[in-house]
Amino acid sequence: MSRQGAPPVALRQRPSRSVPAVICAAVLLALGVVLVWVALVRLTSGSWPEPVKAPLTWLAGVSWDEPGIWVLGSVTAAVGLILLLAGIVPGRYHDLGVRLPAAQEPDSEHAVEGDAAVVMSRRAVAQLAAATCEHIDGVSSASATATDKEVRVSVNTALHDTRDLHRWVGDGVRSRLVASGLDPAPRVKVYIRSRD
User: Fold this and answer.
1) d(C-alpha 129, C-alpha 50), whole Å
2) Domain contains 169
3) How would you classify residue 114: left for phi > 0, otherwise alpha for psi between -120 and 50, otherwise beta?
4) Number of domains observed in the structure of the chain
5) Which domain holds residue 141?
6) Going along the chain, which residue ranges are E strands?
7) Residue 54 phi, psi dihedral angles, 5° rounding
8) pLDDT for residue 130
9) Sheet harboring 2-4: ordered strands across?
């Protein structure tokens, strides 16, 4: 992902927050269905349903300055504030920045002029690390996961002595991440599983 041009817009993608949004929507939908059912029962029969009578009786006998009402109001306000902040405050930045060669560097054939920004997603960094491992002798298969600061590489091998392979994989992945321009390059942790 890259951007070129003058506007100083940060190239940061907000997380979708789809799981909390789905949970909140399901809770609000259930509450809406219950309220519609209660209203229909009240309109058709002329009285409140049994499960609703006890809370309504309690609310009818409560005054505005009672502690229960203050607690209920405070909890409702806190939930509303949390939902509002979840919608307004941007999420955590997850992509990793890539350093571009400057136009002043004479040996750079791919120099970029002007204001440009490039990032790699964590998934792309993990795929790059796994692909790098698969070209190292002794590696049967490899997978990787990446966070903002660390890449974890899991390697399967048929070798019994894995000390050298551990160093080769770590050095190979680290040098590939640095060569790709990640700035700063994340730490690399290698886990080797030896298969018989």
Assistant:
1) 61
2) yes
3) left
4) 2
5) 96-194
6) 2-4, 96-98, 116-120, 141-146, 150-157, 187-194
7) -65, -50
8) 92
9) 2-4, 116-120, 96-98
Classify the C-alpha dihedral 171-172-176-182 as positive or negative.
Answer: negative
CA-wise closest residue to 113 among 98, 102, 99, 124: 102
Task: List, in sequence order, every residue forming a beta bridge with 154; answer none if it has no partner.
Answer: 143, 191
Alpha carbon distance 188, 153 (integer Å) = 7
- What span, in angstroms and rounded, lies between the C-alpha atoms of 120 and 118? 7
Q: What is the pLDDT along the chain (196 residues), one digit of tens a residue?
A: 545 544 444 555 566 677 777 888 899 899 999 999 999 998 998 888 888 888 878 778 878 888 888 898 899 999 889 888 877 776 666 777 777 766 555 555 555 555 566 778 888 899 999 999 888 888 888 999 998 889 999 999 888 888 888 899 999 999 998 888 887 888 999 999 887 6
Question: Domain boundary at 55, 88, 121, which?
Answer: 88
Please say whether the beta carbons of 191 and 154 come within 8 A: yes
Q: What's the full length of the chain, in residues?
A: 196
Q: Give me 193's structure tokens.
A: 């599983």
Give the DSSP per-residue string, 116-143: EEEEE-HHHHHHHHHHHHTTSTT-SEEE
Residue 2 lies in a domain: no
Supply the Cα-derived Rg of the chain in whole angstroms. Answer: 28
